[in-house]
Amino acid sequence: MTPDKHRATAAAILPLVGGPDNIGSVAHCMTRLRLGLHDRSLVDEAALRAVPGVLGVVEDDATCQIVLGPGAVARVTPAFEALVTEGRTAPPTDPAPAEGRTAASAEPPGVTADELAARGAALRQARKARNATPFKLFLRRIANVFVPLIPALIGCGIIAGLGGLLANLGWVPALVPALAAIGSGFMSLIAVFVGHNTAKEFGGTPVLGGAVAAVVVFPGVAKVEAFGQHLSPGQGGVLGALAAALLAVRVERWCRRRVPQALDVLLTPTLTVLVPGLVTLYGLMTVAGALSTGIGTFADRLLATGGAVAGLVLGGLFLPLVMLGLHQALIPIHTTLIQQSGYTVLLPILAMAGAGQVGAALAVYCRLPHNPSLRATIRSALPAGLLGVGEPLIYGVSLPLGRPFVTACVGGAAGGAFVGLFNQLGVAFGSTAIGPSGWALFPLLKGTSGMAATVAVYAGGLAVGYLTGFAATYFFGFTRRMLTELNAAPAPATPPTTPDQPTEAPALA
């Protein structure tokens, strides 16, 4: 999209989320515009989905998330922020109707894409009600700590991969150290960013959270002895930084309540850094270090000894985990694995769930030739699905239909088993960053058996996921009643009759 189109997309979205005065916060991740709203009842989801460029809408308890896709979201977000700023003092306007929609438009008989979207919205609301538990809300907040780091993880991961490729090929050797420094610099200080974001998310002072977490990566910790051993810089990784910043938030809140106002500017930041810093050095780094090592060892052994079975389970259950909100617990695990070994072995397997979803959607397209509205939804959502953005297909197609969601999981399980099997056979690989999936994951792949083998196995897993998801959905994704209900052809329009133009009798079969 051109800059004018980016601004046009932002301008179309703004009134449909309640206007500038309803916007509390604006942020974005790799694919979604994330809006904190004062009043969620002002959101017109149906009209949002009809905006050109919008691939889907995901609303949870914390934010309204508008799926725009990789690249587009980073360009639409600044335009949206500018429009919000410009419109703060402007008089409110009524949301414009979605392009191409009229009150008098008639729907064809049978189940249309709009009706399936309504089912998807109801399922999302039910999921929100189930997910509003303290534990799942906590996981969501932990995910919010890591989501802003994804662009840097992606960029640095690709740069590090490029440096490794040049080193293996022996090309431009003078450039390899520079690329290594650029690609690794962020990862060496990721604990500081985790601490900063943790304090920000949980209501503390961000810079104090970053200051406490910086202890984890400070080279001087090598001189500190805890539990009879000297500490290592980076010991505990992001888990240690997360725990240290959470403790700093608790200490800061305690100080704000009890320290006299005259001494607050001196004592509160000092105690907020000192107390959690000491606890981090003499406890958290050791405990988090052991936990991080255990996570890495478990992941490696899981795929080395039971790769096919483990891949089948992980690939098959990932979509249900997303529905339950439990997938957010994997984000710190992915980040820990990347920090330890340079890549997460779990993400390529979990990405197979998206492949099963794409295959299932293609089968739905083929099985419902007389449902133009649903086929149009699939056509518009498939490119995003191939790049790993699965929400439009999940909430607009497979989940509302029911059975195709299950058969999509079967496709994900088959693709996961394929990738897991090759991990078990020695072709171990993973992703150097989190966030992308599908075809977008290719530039981030890294393994122990060379790039050619790594790419071939991942591509093979995608193919298996596509084909299995398609076959399972085509043959087992519909009952006869579902096909009758969903595949009803639109009735031809009957012109009005006049006394001079009598109607014809219907032909007998």
From TrEMBL:
The keyword Kinase applies. The keyword Transmembrane applies. Residues 87-110, 489-509 are annotated as: Disordered. It is a multi-pass membrane protein. Residues 7-90 form the PTS EIIB type-1 domain. It comes from the Bacteria. InterPro entries: Glu_permease_IIB, PTrfase_EIIB_Cys, PTS_EIIC, PTS_EIIC_1, PTS_IIB_1, PTS_Sugar-Specific_Components. The chain crosses the membrane at residues 145-169, 175-195, 202-222, 234-251, 263-282, 302-324, 345-365, 377-398, 405-430, 450-476. This is PTS alpha-glucoside transporter subunit IIA.
